[in-house]
Amino acid sequence: MQVTNPRRILAVSLDTQENVLSRAIKELTDTVPEATSSSLAGSTHDLPIKTSYYTATLPVWLDLVDDPEAWAASFLSDEAAEVLAALGAVVVVFGQGDEEQIKLLLRQVGRVLDEGLGGWEWDGVRLAVGFDVAGDEEWEEICAEAGLEFVRVAEGEETLNEFGEKMGVARVKEALEANDWEMGADQLLDDDTQDSDSLDFGYDRADFEGLRQAIWNASLADDEDDAEADDAATPVGRPRADSELEHGPYNLGGQEAKNDAGSSQEVQDTKNQDAASRKDGNAQVGRGQDEGGEGNGDGHDGAGVEDIEGDDVDKVEDMMRKLQAVRDAGAGMGEAQRRRMAARAVAEVMKEL
């Protein structure tokens, strides 16, 4: 299948490391990028890809950054929305140099990924390629915090590690080839692809179902507490709130309303009906939960339950999508790096909970 209009790759480096960016494009495409002016900034280079499933020529946008914070702000502006929507991969390229500036660039790229592209729910490729840099574990941790997979490239290095996983430029190509370049940038995973058993982060769907149940129970408890408070606030022998709304708790002369035996019986009947309604409502909620949450427990139009479904439960499902997206993003990473990225994502989810 020929991908005729693929999404773009954004390759970013510090302006002091233009030669490193040029080297990366050369090793990735086997051709040297040509500058459109005095530098590579703003130029485009093509990356041909051919797999068993598709062929495509991916445009690689090259950018050089002198001020990472200003660069991130420009990419998060309204004017850059169409640019972000066209991206299918973000690749940060760096080499030996000013480590503080490199770390700042990585953090700001992570900010664009999080605020501009949707964070873990974005389905594109996110890589940080370090050429001839030392301290793999430190760079892996820094890149994981920015939501990037760290790939180290060194001259003469093996293409496979001890686990048979690809390394260096081979890993970069593998990650890019595995992407779906026709998929919409804002397309989300549907429920059928959310296999919680394979998340491997120590949390599964049962944990979130428990949270869903807790949300329901808390809501019902609040409703019952409110009803009991209303009962306690109504003096014995006086009509309940609906009668008070019509006549007021006291007559116009300022004397407390008198109640005969018939009124007392009406009060008792009203209380019995309220108790029966609450009991029946709770039973409906129980049946609704057993049947997938379709019932409602308020005896009316179910608006309260719909509010719960529309707010808290949606948040839980968004978090499940985030964990699934992190799992997909870390599919080709090494074990240690995958664990770091997973730990960060789970920490974010639990903070939101």
TrEMBL record:
Protein's GO biological process: vesicle-mediated transport
GO MF assignments: protein-macromolecule adaptor activity
Chain spans, region Disordered: 222-315
Compositional bias ranges of the Acidic residues kind: 222-231, 304-315
Record field: compositional bias (Basic and acidic residues): 268-281
Organism domain of life: Eukaryota
Stored Pfam families: Adaptin_binding
InterPro entries per record: Irc6
Protein name stated in the entry: Increased recombination centers protein 6
Organism, scientific name: Ophiocordyceps australis
Higher taxonomy: Eukaryota, Fungi, Dikarya, Ascomycota, Pezizomycotina
